[in-house]
Structure formats: C-alpha cells, structure tokens
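Re: that backbone. Tokens:
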C-alpha cells in the first residue's frame, strides 16, 4: 500500500478510536502516542507534497519566462 496522507490519517483515526474504546490505561496511552505519530507523518507528507508542487510550479514558470525572453 502506498504511503499517502489519507492512509496516515485513516490510521490515526483508527488509533484514536482504539484509544477511546480501551479500558487499560497503558493500551490507551500507546494508541494515543501512535495516533500522534500517524498525524505527524501525515502533516510532514502534506508539507512535502506542497513544497514539491511549489518547486515544480516555479520551475515551469522559469522555463516559460526563458522561452518568452528568447
């Protein structure tokens, strides 16, 4: 399965649900830590994708500007 932000967020939601259903504090704490880790990975991937998109757009704009200048 590919690592997409949607996958990470689904896993985070599952961990949050498991934590809410847990009666054992250690299990609840473990699931809450896992939820936070999944959300952090999703946020980083979203930021990476946004940065990559900006870089691609900037490169395309430079190419277009160079072509117009010639």
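Recovered sequence:
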């Amino acid at each position: 399965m590919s690592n997409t932000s949607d996958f990470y967020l689904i896993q985070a939601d599952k961990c949050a649900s498991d934590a809410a259903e847990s009666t054992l504090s250690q299990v609840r704490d473990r699931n809450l830590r896992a939820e936070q880790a999944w959300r952090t990975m999703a946020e980083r991937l979203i930021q990476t994708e946004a940065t990559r998109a900006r870089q691609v757009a900037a490169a395309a704009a430079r190419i277009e500007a160079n072509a117009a200048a010639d």
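Residues 25-69 form the longest helix (45 residues). The chain has one domain: 5-69.
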